């Protein structure tokens, strides 16, 4: 198809479809949902520059929510509008990651369709929480780093690498969970450069040079580390600028670093038991999803169950394993990306010093399952197993239609309607 030779057009079309889906019924319910009770009031305070609130998290995501309120009013649509753009950015970013990795539009298109059909992205695109903005900037940073890898000249590579640093800094300024990805990006740079040196029969030390490199040409190792680190950290701190203008307890330069320690202490404090808490190892299995909403609202019984599309979530685990196995056999770094993105984004939660865990923390890994699926299906297609990706997409779509009433706050028949979708006793 001629369209499949125009990646930008395809990406824009899938982005328009995603935005239309996310906007439909966005203002329902008209009340605050789940953690909006924390972040919308914090955004109101930021808009008024009243003073510090919700100090356990950085400011940027709440600044973006405040911008929505300023543009569209203090309403459900205003709170959530920019979340829809973030969700659309994630869907298009998944397209970009796979296209830049494989160089083909078909697998990139399927990756974005998997993302569009994965409930976690849909749900986070329709609620005023921090995670959606963090994910959008983080996925954008990965796209920029891969774009830099293909840069035609050294100046172009450096500019794109700086864009990646800015995006990673903005992601961290939404939520600290994005901070490790700066180190992951540097690790990916080093690993690919070392592989390039081995393939070319050069000394491994040549990986640090910017000369004669097939990936990130003209960008030396030390400069790559310095740029990504310095740009991301600088970007992160710049987002605290509004706090210097608070009417009450304004931030000062001398307080900026100590304030990070206060944030860390608040994020790692021991919290009481929560009915919806779950352990990190259980998230890929969808053992304990969360009700963001289940009550009478806007004249009807409505629910928003935060869970992933079981086809994408469980099928994605098979794809991750397939990428790992095929990478061990072939050493293809594209397969390593399919395996590595999900693996590091998931396993980091096993090391995170938080007293409670919740299923929505799995949001980032759930996004990268879509990348692993596309890469695994592309390899299957090359091996002669045609139409597997199409059949999988049809199944994921059917499941999405089935669950749609309880992920979209649609009108339900009564307060026991949720039982129709409760597959397991551990589900709420």
Give the beta-strand count: 2
Globally, the shape reads globular
Low-confidence stretches: none
Q: Total helix count? A: 15
- Topology order in helix (H) and strand (E) letters: HHHHHHHHHHHEEHHHH
Please describe what this structure looks like.
By secondary structure, the chain is mainly α. It contains 15 helices and 2 strands. Helix 3 crosses helix 4, helix 4 runs parallel beside helix 14 and helix 8 packs parallel to helix 10 (about 220-240). The radius of gyration is 22 Å and the shape is globular. The termini are far apart.
Summarize the helices and strands and which ones pair or pack.
Blueprint: H1 7-23, H2 36-48, H3 60-72, H4 76-102, H5 105-117, H6 119-124, H7 131-149, H8 154-174, H9 180-200, H10 221-238, H11 253-267, E1 290-297, E2 300-306, H12 310-330, H13 333-347, H14 363-382, H15 388-403
Antiparallel strand pairs: 1-2
Helix pairs in contact: 1-4, 1-5, 2-3, 3-4, 4-5, 4-7, 4-14, 5-14, 5-15, 7-8, 8-10, 9-10, 12-13, 12-14, 13-14
